[in-house]
Amino acid sequence: MRLAPTSLLRRERAVVLLALAGLTALAWLYLLVAQRDMAMPMAPMDDMPDMAMPFPAGWVLAMWWIMMLGMMLPSAAPMILTFEALQRRKWERHEAYVPIAIFLAGYLLVWGGFSLAATAAQWWLQQNALLSPMLALATPPLGGALFVMAGLYQWSPLKSACLRQCRSPFAFLLNQWRDGWSGALRMGAGHGAYCLGCCWVLMALLFAVGVMNLLWVAAIAAFVFAEKLLPHGIWIARLGGIAMATFGVWLAAS
Q1: How many domains does the chain have?
Q2: What is the mean pLDDT of the chain?
Q3: Is residue 1 included in any domain, yes or no?
Q4: 47: which DSSP letter?
Q5: Which candidate, 128, 145, 214, 233, has a CA 20 to 30 Å from the CA of 176?
Q6: What is the three-state SS of 125-149?
Q7: What is the pLDDT of residue 111?
Q8: Rounded to two decimals, what is the model's pTM?
């Protein structure tokens, strides 16, 4: 395996930060364009009886996956940078160097799996007339129940266990370390799995407020960032859970 050039390794941290910022910006630009396209006048759903979705399934899958990229990459940056630092130290000891893109690919594959499940869920909801044309749950009680479920999940042992792993990059890599390209892919997928366990219900809330409601997309992304990276993040998650459950009860009652 060829080692990375010295000049590239010295600049890699800055390159990684710029790349993550660029990918996040491109993802949000895509979402802005997609939201504009969805806001264009559409024929009533009654005029399209043979269509399961107003847009092709491949487009919906891409939309979900790119949305996950834009929402999750900022909070995953410390883990990615920690992996980069450990790989640089391996290079300095003249050991095999693994590109950071391999770790990131494993992480994104997990969220690709979630995006596939979200696409299937959206198809099922639309088939059963449970989504409005703006891709929000058609009745407040359903949306309220989803918020209550999200609030309760914020207090669950599984949520706490996954969140602790996401908040401790060095400890995660120390305990989960695997050598080689396949090992980096597995570590990226493992971190992605913990992030998925931490945040999947929060992402599901988009069905309650509108899949392409970018204000809510930004709010959920900011909440994920806060609970994963700010001090006392576990209590941010739990207090947020109380707020979600309270809002869910109000929404259902309305």
Answers
A1: 1
A2: 87
A3: no
A4: G
A5: 233
A6: HHHCCCECCCCCECCHHHHHHHHHH
A7: 96
A8: 0.85
